[in-house]
């Protein structure tokens, strides 16, 4: 077959018959949710939602992770909500928290200082532990070792569209390593030295400075004079490659990704470098911002924007337009998601509802 013209075209532009995709073999994949015992109801709401919109047909396993022992009531309730295998694992002590070599009093003082400066979420020690865990040690968790692919979930998220194909299978078939739904601008104060640290790593490793930022700040369809002007501006202000991150980052509460990429020496070396520079505690470095676009050198083919997946994590969402009704298959099998709002022919996405029960206006935009 001919390769797709657009390397990152949506995987699906309409609902399919989920039974057809579900008849194919599963990938070696699992959902993963790191959560606290206290988030039981929120975790259940996510699981019930993803079961209704996707997993009722595919029955992928769900791995719940906690840094503390599981509350038996959490295990009971969530076991009852998952259609596939549910596993409840506790993260090893050594994989959670400060690295052994770190001066913990100094780190705590830095966290307190970030809190008193009012930097969003940066005053909570546990938030830093969570970010460090997801950046590096997550991939070493014993219960994950048998899997190649994961789909990250969080409590209280919502998928607004039926997902009637297997995203893992499409990722594998198209050679993708990292899939996201939402990318947005990070608050600069949360990670003032992150990109410099990444760029130091890049140059230490002898990797070329990829002009990725240019693609990010210059929409490829912008009129030529605007592209030209932005190109000139960025050259004129050139000091060092690493100082020009525009703070665009993947919102990593949703991810579908290839664990082998993160387990690989190259990514782990980057994590070690960031860990040694102390960034997970001296600032609120969140796990994903700049290094995926930067690394490996030509990543664009490996990345995928799931434009067809409706997703809501408070306060932001992505809501695809609704697929034309005539192409909707197996409406009854789609359950709730088939009770749909206005349709906009030609739009991508299986039938979607707006997050949180919001309405769509007559142009298909969620209000
Ligand atoms: P945000 O999305 O950046 O606001 O971060 P969250 O507070 O939602 O945390 C991200 C994920 O990590 C969620 O799935 C939380 O349930 C989980 N999480 C955060 N901190 C902890 C923690 O200290 N222990 C456990 N077990 N889970 C945590
Ligand atoms: Mn969250």
From TrEMBL:
<dbReference type="GO" id="GO:0016020">
    <property type="term" value="C:membrane"/>
</dbReference>
<dbReference type="GO" id="GO:0006487">
    <property type="term" value="P:protein N-linked glycosylation"/>
</dbReference>
<keyword id="KW-0812">Transmembrane</keyword>
<dbReference type="GO" id="GO:0000026">
    <property type="term" value="F:alpha-1,2-mannosyltransferase activity"/>
</dbReference>
<keyword id="KW-1133">Transmembrane helix</keyword>
<dbReference type="GO" id="GO:0005794">
    <property type="term" value="C:Golgi apparatus"/>
</dbReference>
<keyword id="KW-0472">Membrane</keyword>
<dbReference type="GO" id="GO:0000032">
    <property type="term" value="P:cell wall mannoprotein biosynthetic process"/>
</dbReference>
<feature type="active site" description="Nucleophile">
    <location>
        <position position="255"/>
    </location>
</feature>
<comment type="similarity">
    <text>Belongs to the glycosyltransferase 15 family.</text>
</comment>
<keyword id="KW-0808">Transferase</keyword>
<keyword id="KW-0328">Glycosyltransferase</keyword>
<protein>
    <submittedName>
        <fullName>Glycosyltransferase family 15 protein</fullName>
    </submittedName>
</protein>
């Amino acid at each position: 077959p001919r390769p797709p013209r657009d390397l990152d075209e949506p995987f699906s532009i309409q609902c399919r018959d989920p039974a057809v995709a579900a008849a194919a073999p599963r990938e070696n994949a699992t959902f993963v949710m790191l959560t606290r015992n206290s988030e039981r109801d929120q975790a259940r709401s996510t699981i019930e939602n993803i079961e209704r919109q996707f997993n009722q047909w595919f029955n992928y396993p769900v791995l719940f992770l906690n840094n503390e022992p599981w509350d038996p009531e959490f295990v009971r309730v969530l076991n009852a909500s998952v259609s596939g295998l549910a596993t409840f694992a506790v993260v090893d002590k050594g994989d959670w928290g400060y690295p052994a070599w770190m001066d913990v009093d100094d780190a705590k003082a830095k966290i307190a200082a970030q809190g008193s400066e009012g930097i969003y979420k940066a005053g909570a020690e546990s938030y830093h532990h969570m970010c460090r865990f997801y950046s590096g040690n997550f991939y070493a968790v014993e219960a994950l070792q048998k899997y190649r692919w994961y789909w990250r979930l969080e409590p209280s998220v919502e998928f607004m569209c039926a997902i009637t194909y297997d995203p893992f299978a499409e990722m594998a078939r198209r050679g993708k390593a990292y899939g996201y739904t939402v990318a947005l601008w990070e608050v600069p104060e949360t990670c003032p030295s992150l990109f410099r640290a990444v760029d130091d790593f890049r140059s230490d490793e002898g990797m070329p400075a990829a002009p990725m930022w240019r693609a990010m700040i210059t929409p490829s369809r912008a009129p030529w004079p605007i592209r030209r002007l932005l190109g000139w501006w960025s050259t004129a202000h050139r000091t060092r490659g690493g100082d020009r991150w525009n703070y665009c980052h993947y919102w990593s509460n949703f991810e579908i990704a290839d664990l082998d990429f993160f387990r690989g020496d190259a990514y782990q070396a980057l994590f070690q470098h960031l860990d040694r520079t102390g960034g997970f505690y001296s600032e609120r470095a969140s796990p994903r911002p700049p290094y995926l676009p930067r690394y490996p050198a030509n990543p664009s083919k490996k990345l995928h924007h799931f434009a067809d997946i409706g997703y809501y994590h408070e306060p932001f969402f992505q809501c695809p337009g609704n697929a034309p009704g005539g192409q909707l298959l197996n409406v009854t099998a789609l359950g709730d998601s088939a009770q749909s709002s206005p349709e906009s022919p030609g739009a991508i996405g299986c039938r979607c509802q707006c997050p949180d029960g919001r309405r769509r206006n007559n142009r298909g935009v969620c209000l």
